[in-house]
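Its record is set out here:
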Amino acid sequence: MKMGFLFSGIFWGLVLILIGASIILKVVFDIDLPVVRTIFGLLLIALGIQILFGISFKRTPSKGGNDAIFTERVFQFNSGHSDYNTIFGKSSLDLSRWKEGENNRVEINTIFANSRIRISEKVPIKIKSDTVFGSIILPGQNINAFGSYNYTSPAYKEGKPHLFIEINTVFGATEVYE
């Protein structure tokens, strides 16, 4: 496993901010923050996200990609990408122009972030959504805190080609709108 995050500007920037904030809080307000434990906790969270999702915290090139990490991104849907990840950021994805014959499965993961997904009622869509400590807003249905819900668009017919979307939201918010 690569540990590129330990050598990134984001990590060392956060470390310096935490150390500076703890010094100011100690001198001005006589509040003692456990900086080393906080940094260790953030490191464990970052490592857990890397292991869980197989992603790195390196910046994604601006040309494309399907990860929005610590940034805001507008994804362009194409048949080459089936997974879209938003972590500590904000993203939007337009799936309203899906055509039969293209990639028929898309997975969208939102972790400590916000995602907006545009769909069309003319496109046959089936959505399976799961949320943990978050919120998913589907056309006609809201899920808060914990839950699972399946949604089908008006154009969906069982056994016919359709777009299957799997949405996973953890400590974040995902909105699907028409």
In short: The radius of gyration is 19 Å. The helical segments are 9-29, 35-53. The chain has a mean pLDDT of 78.
